[in-house]
Amino acid sequence: LRFDEKVRVVVFKSEVKGVFCAGADLKERAKMDDAEVGHFVKRLRNLMDEIAALPVPTIAAIDGYALGGGLELALACDLRVAASSAKMGLIETTRGLLPGAGGTQRLPRCVGIGLAKELIFTGRQVDGQQAFSMGLVNHTVPQNSDGDAAYQRALTLAKEILPQAPFAVKMGKLAINRGMEVDIASGMAIEGMCYAQNIPTRDRQEGMAAFREKRPPQFIGK
């Protein structure tokens, strides 16, 4: 996906009705020794980092349970859409664990430090409406009879992104992600570097021409 230039947006959805991702298999985990557990969680953390580093926008369609590593997967995405009936939580402390695949870092960046601490310390689960009210998800929708309401809303959101200039969107994601990790002056410099890369693109010229000619732009990602 990272190297496929035809990909504009990636939507993560589950094929299991009622479950987005239920997290680690604790029965499997119980059979591992301490070294194996450490290796397993490190690989999981690396996977989430790779998802977060995808150059195109990513959307998690949460139509059911997103618990533990399942919520960490959703947090690794840029945007999250949830059914109102979905259940989300970093529940690791209820099992004698702590989030190990990015949850302690991505949740506070998403909802703020105080709320993230409360959710992680208590292992509390929240539904889609509660998640929306705290900024954990971008949108919440009533579940439908097919059980894929969040996926359908995620597709609608993806279709809003698709017509926009692909390279500009990629640079926007890069500037936001890198800029959030540094002070604002450094962030401004990062934005300037990303903007400079966008200036010579054919899509920028097309955007200007379409505006002058009062027509919709036809972006090609170049």
From TrEMBL:
CDD domains: crotonase-like (cd06558). The keyword Iron-sulfur does not apply. Gene3D superfamilies: 2-enoyl-CoA Hydratase, Chain A, domain 1, Lyase 2-enoyl-coa Hydratase, Chain A, domain 2. PROSITE patterns: ENOYL_COA_HYDRATASE (PS00166). GO terms for biological process: fatty acid beta-oxidation. InterPro entries: ClpP/crotonase-like_dom_sf (IPR029045), Enoyl-CoA_hyd/isom_CS (IPR018376), Enoyl-CoA_hydra/iso (IPR001753), Enoyl-CoA_hydra_C (IPR014748). GO terms for molecular function: enoyl-CoA hydratase activity. Keywords: Lyase. GO terms for cellular component: mitochondrion. It comes from the Eukaryota. Belongs to the enoyl-CoA hydratase/isomerase family. This is ECHD2 protein. It comes from Ibidorhyncha struthersii. The lineage of its organism: Eukaryota, Metazoa, Chordata, Craniata, Vertebrata. The gene is Echdc2.
